[in-house]
Amino acid sequence: MNADLEEQEDELVALQSIFDSEEFVRNESKSAGEIRVSAELPAGFTVVLREGETVRQYEISFLPPLLLNFELPENYPSSSPPSFTLTCSWLTHTQLSALAAQLTDLYQASGGTVVLFSWAQFLREDALKFLNIHNLLELPSDQHNSQDTQSAALCEPKILADGQNASTSDWSRQSNLTSHHSKVSQNAFDSGPNIDVRETEQAFQTSEFKDDYQNDLFSGADKSKCERGQEDKNEDGLSVPGSLDPLDQPGQGATSPAPCPRETPQNKEHRPSGLTPSQSLLSQILIFDADQKQKVFANTVFDCSVCFMSLLGSECVQLLDCGHIFCQACLAEFCKVQIKEGTVRGVTCPQADCTASPTPAQVRSLVGEELFSRYDRLLLQSTLDSMSDVMYCPRRSCGSAVILEKSSSAALCSVCGFAFCVKCRKTYHGTEECATMKPPRAIKKDVNEDHANLPMSYEGLKALIDDYNSGSKERRRLLENRYGHRVALATAEECLNDQWLATNSKSCPHCFTKIEKTGGCDVMTCSRCRQTFCWICLSGLSSVHFCKPKS
User: Fold this and answer.
1) Could you read off the pLDDT of 273-309 as tens digits, one per residue?
2) Residue 404 gets which letter from DSSP?
3) Whole-angstrom Cα distance, residue 213 to residue 215?
4) What does the alpha-carbon distance between residue 425 and residue 514 come to, in Å, rounded to a whole number?
5) Are residues 170 and 234 in the same domain?
6) What is the distance between the alpha carbons of residues 265 and 238, in angstroms, rounded to a whole number?
7) In this predicted model, what pLDDT tens digit does every residue of 340-379 receive, in sequence order?
């Protein structure tokens, strides 16, 4: 007896030194604990969910762990195996029962030695192979579960009929299965331990699948008794017996049908709105896989492609689209410069010839809320500018985005109600042609007829404005008295600007921003909407555009 207790203590101490605190938790008050075992997955392992004609397929690297809760009896390991509970969110009841039976066989083959580490090693390295799961885990669909439950219900009268002629011990074993606290007797595994394969409260948090295993054994009134018996369940949640019924053949692989999920208040509380149990399980698997990948990334050393320093992944950022890795400091400074300069389309991967962009969440964490707000606003504006059927309200007090109709030259701002012409961006003028630039004399003339008219030529207007801007107070006062007060001079300056723009610039065909060409070829890129066009004909570019005459 003392030798068994010493071996138990040595084994538990060894497990504490082998596993970290997330993998092994010891119950100090008794010889018990919990081991979390993550099954090793081969490269390219895929999880699949089929729903009718829709197939969701994802490549993953991690699956949620199997939970092995154990308690060591006083005569372990010499003559008795551990009592244990095996829990997993993505395995069926049949598969869990097969694993439990294999753990029992491993103890029997050990010859009375400690087996907890061997069990954990088997679950990690060989559990999937034992269940004939290799590179594909197919989750049972909800329709599959429903059909499986109906098939089980049709078979139940036959099971009960056979039970009436069974021996007393067989009937006793079957009766024990109706209890939520029952355990499979040693006869169920041919002199195996007391095993309770169940879904614990923790499994409720890991997955929304709650298997109604009583549906595999009872029908009619027996089912209603089981449902009423839910009030008697213990604090650990639903306890499911691990029976090796002749109908349950172990090792059927991941495609084995799972019993129909039970709808409980806890299911409804934890399940995301609008998701079926199968979709929720798939979501839980993908979230766990992403979390584990992030942990591995955070503990790995990478070289920043900008400063070439070696840093832990916790201090780096990996762009999802291209996979390039940079340290947070370098990428943050790069993004901040682009946002401050207003070139939000330049917030891309710093790697040469790479057009991938960081996600909005990554940009937010790098630049902070204030700059991210500017980035978000400019990115929306840039996106609207790149749309050929969107322009802005010409009113300076409004400036809201307006969606254009292809068959109409008029546009109506939904915010301020201003109707304007799409071509000239002035008040809508119906079928009349857009007004061209008129000479300064016709644009505005001072009300007082004694004032002189503004010069007609561009050079005269320019000389007048330069004289006014560079003159003394007396000179400005003289010009104001001659040509009118500030209204006439402001009109002259505005007309001068319009003439310069008409002579030296063209409008972007996408966002109508005025663009000046200072040199180079005729392929232009708008600095506002980033669209490319031909400077000569103001049309979009194609591979044969410059082969055409007049292009």
Assistant:
1) 578 888 899 999 999 999 999 999 999 999 998 999 9
2) P
3) 5
4) 13
5) yes
6) 13
7) 988 888 899 999 889 899 999 999 999 999 999 999 988 8
CB 92 within 8 A of CB 213: no
Final residue in a domain of this structure, among 385, 400, 421: 385
The lowest-confidence range among 132-146, 202-216, 390-404 is: 202-216
Q: What is the DSSP letter of 490?
A: H
DSSP helix/strand/coil, 377: helix
- Calculate the average pLDDT of the chain: 73
pLDDT of residue 253: 33
Could you tell me which of 153, 184, 220 has the C-alpha nearest to residue 84?
184
Kindly report the number of other CB atoms within 10 A of residue 336's CB atom.
Answer: 17
What average pLDDT does the segment 261-273 reach?
47
Alpha helices in 47-188 (DSSP H): 93-110, 116-125, 127-130, 142-164, 168-176
Q: Which CATH number do you get for residue 106?
A: 3.10.110.10
Per the annotation, the verdict on 322 as an active-site residue is no
- pLDDT of residue 147 exceeding 70, the answer is no
**Are 474 and 543 within one domain?**
no
Residues 374 and 453 in one domain: no
471 and 323 in one domain? no
The span from the CA of 10 to the CA of 16, in Å, is 10
Question: Of residues 307, 316, 521, 529, which has the active-site annotation?
Answer: 521
For 203, the token pair is: 């499994």
Q: CA 8, CA 2: separation in Å to the nearest integer?
A: 10
| 179 shares a domain with 151 | yes
Mean pLDDT of 519-538: 80
Q: Which two tokens stand for residue 383?
A: 């996106």
217, 252, 282: which is the final residue of a domain? 282
Is 11 in the same domain as 118? yes
Give the count of domains, the chain. 4
Q: Can you give the CATH number for the domain in which 356 is found?
A: 3.30.40.10
Give me the half-sphere count of Cα atoms (radius 13 Å) on the Cβ side of residue 383: 6
- The verdict on residue 183 lying in a domain is yes
Share of the chain above pLDDT 70, in %: 66
Residue type, 195: I
Determine the pLDDT at residue 523: 85
Indicate the burial class of 199 (C-beta count within 10 angstroms; 0-12, 13-18, 19 or more): buried
3-state secondary structure 438-479: CCHHHHCCCCCCCCCCCCCCHHHHHHHHHHHHHCCHHHHHHH
Least confidently predicted of 260-269, 411-420, 433-442: 260-269
Q: Is residue 288 part of a domain?
A: no
Q: At what angle do helices 360-385 and 328-340 cross, to 10 degrees?
A: 20
Please state the rounded mean pLDDT for residues 410-431. 88
Q: How many CB atoms lie within 10 A of CB 508?
A: 20
Residues 508, 421: contact at Cβ < 8 Å?
A: no
Q: Where are the beta strands (DSSP E) in 363-416?
A: 390-392, 401-403, 410-412
> What pTM does this model have?
0.55
Range of the domain at 273: 2-282
